[in-house]
Write a structure and sequence with these properties.
alpha/beta; seven-stranded parallel beta sheet; globular
Length: 272
């Protein structure tokens, strides 16, 4: 990792996480990778970090061919949010990187300008990508692409929008065959189909798997020690042999006063 980036992490009291360094190594080897990590595991920064490092080391001049990284999100609001968050490290380190979004809400004048003067990193959706690929200038626009980052890939693969994205990725593979692919996914039980979906060849083995194990959940005593917690309105009857016994004392309201409940049914629910 370049000194500038290491200093940026240290200035925030952070240490690069192993999966973030793993994606840097994958990018250095030119390999595509699938990162599986729980929410809050630093997936987004891990996906963009190799692109930021590459553009820091080898700045791209403005104009046609400037586009280096294409980020694809299932939600346009997420794309806008990620662009805003990504600006923080870029501005903090003074990187010569321009970041923009391309969604259905992008003004027409910005869309026209992006054709001749694309950003270094473009954040978009599967639908907007389809429109970009249909334009006559698509070959020139995507020809210098170095990376494609697919966020929330687990939510796209296997759906109709996933099929649409798969066609877009196949087209990008023809226009920019050297572009590596990065998939960012929440924890899933079976990563192999996602690796195959991301792979330019369709073979899962061609995509590195970087997996972050979720931290174990803290153990705490259950408020429902017996199997079969009751429905709403009967918790007290379930919890309490002692409360049920107390209710049977003279002067106490009887559990039988509850419509549809009798002492015997309460006792059965409490395991009595």
């Amino acid at each position: 990792m370049p000194e500038l980036f290491a200093a940026w992490f240290a200035g925030r009291g952070w240490t690069p996480r192993p999966h973030q360094l793993a994606l840097l190594r994958a990018a250095a080897a030119g390999d595509s990778a699938l990162l599986i990590a729980p929410t809050g595991g630093g997936k987004t920064l891990a996906g963009f970090l190799p692109s930021l490092v590459t553009l820091h080391r080898t700045p791209r001049p403005p104009g046609p061919g400037a586009l280096h990284t294409l980020y694809i999100s299932p939600l346009k609001a997420l794309a806008v949010d990620i662009a805003r968050n990504l600006m923080a490290p870029v501005e903090d380190m003074g990187l010569p990187i321009r970041i923009e979004t391309r969604t259905g809400d992008t003004p027409q004048n910005r869309r026209a300008r992006q054709k001749d003067d694309p950003p270094h990193i473009l954040l978009t959706t599967p639908e907007s990508l389809e429109l970009l690929l249909s334009q006559p200038e698509a070959g020139e626009f995507f020809g210098g692409l170095g990376a494609v980052v697919v966020d929330e890939i687990h939510a796209l693969a296997g759906s109709k929008r996933g099929d649409q994205l798969a066609l877009g990725l196949a087209r990008l593979g023809r226009l920019a065959p050297a572009a590596r692919r990065v998939g960012l996914s929440a924890t899933v039980a079976w990563p192999e189909p996602l690796r195959a979906f991301l792979s330019p060849s369709g073979r899962a083995g061609d995509v590195r798997l970087v997996q972050v194990r979720a931290a174990p959940r803290p153990s705490s005593p259950s408020p429902c020690p017996r199997a079969g917690c009751p429905g709403a309105g009967t918790w007290a009857l379930h919890r309490c042999p002692r409360s049920t016994a107390a209710s049977a004392r003279p002067g106490s309201p009887s559990s039988s006063s509850i419509p549809g409940r009798s002492p015997s049914s309460a006792s059965r629910r409490c395991g009595g």
